[in-house]
Amino acid sequence: MCFCMKGWLMALELPMLKMSYRVYRVWQRDRDIYLNAWATELWPPFVEPLLSIIALGMGLGYYVTDINGMSFIQFLAPAFAATGAMYASAFECTYASFVRMVYQKTFDAIMATPCTIEDVIGGEMLWGTTRALLSATIVLIVISAFGLTGSWWALGIPFVALLQGLMFSSMSMVVTSMVPTFGAFNYYITLAITPMFLFSGVFFPLDRLPDSIRWVAWFSPLTHAVTPIRALATGQVHLGLLWDLVWMAVVSVVLVNVALVLMRRRLIK
Q: 28-67: per-residue pLDDT in tens?
């Protein structure tokens, strides 16, 4: 059965199947650069959720009634793990990857080695996924310190963040493959990332939205990350959460392959 499945996938000639173990070497290069700058890179993920909890949870939350039996801060805090993972992976695979590709010519240098385009882009997306994992884990530590996790299920949040990180890394790499200039990323941030931040169940339940907007929100990738992460943090785990995980997995596979195809077209002219 496994051999038949592998043969069927090979017949599809999916670009992701062209990636090799050298993906790890590209990831390792990005990791080493990050570690060299750890003093400036590590502390912001701690400060951002801390400020958000104080300003929104404790400040604004004083004027907000309970939501689904939870205080506003209990409802809001777990979602910061999802938004942190989204921003970390999105910025890494847009601005940072564009700089390495266009200005630093890092991609060209790596492709002069036995690494293929698929290895380079796969390594970039893997590093973006790692940044998402790191960000979500730090948020988990912060909200746990405030007593805002009510179950041991919260330990599963980093695993959801891995899948979410891959999804947003590949989505962002698709954008990076098409933008002509550095400033063009403003369209992606303003028209995609920001609306997802506002309308994906981060600040309020989606059932409070009009039906038309609720359907749009359902297609937001962030919605399918916020739901399981909040459920894990509060201990309200149910089988329906598997749908969100499957949704993210399918979208991730599609976007990874699209990103590899488009980046090959951009880099090989």
A: 999 999 999 888 888 888 888 888 888 887 787 777 888 8
Report the distance separating Cα 81 and Cα 132, nearest Å.
9
% of the chain with per-residue pLDDT over 90: 71
Query: DSSP letter string over 86-99?
Result: HHHHHHIIIIIHHI
Judge residue 203's burial from the number of C-beta atoms within 10 Å of its C-beta, 0-12 exposed, 13-18 middle, 19 or more buried: middle
Rounded Cα distance, 169 and 81, in Å: 16
Give the tokens for residue 157: 């949040």
CA distance 115 to 124: 13
Contact 197, 161 (CB under 8 A): no
d(CA 213, CA 196): 12
Structure tokens at 96: 């940072």
Residue carrying structure tokens 């149910």: 238
Give the closest residue to 171 by CA, choosing from 260, 256, 101.
256
Q: What's the pLDDT at 11?
A: 47
**C-alpha distances in angstroms, 239 versus 128, 245, 250?**
28, 11, 18
Amino acid sitting at position 108: D
pLDDT higher than 70, residue 10: no
d(CA 207, CA 205): 5
Which are the contacts of 101, defined by CB distance < 8 A and separation ≥ 6?
107, 176, 267
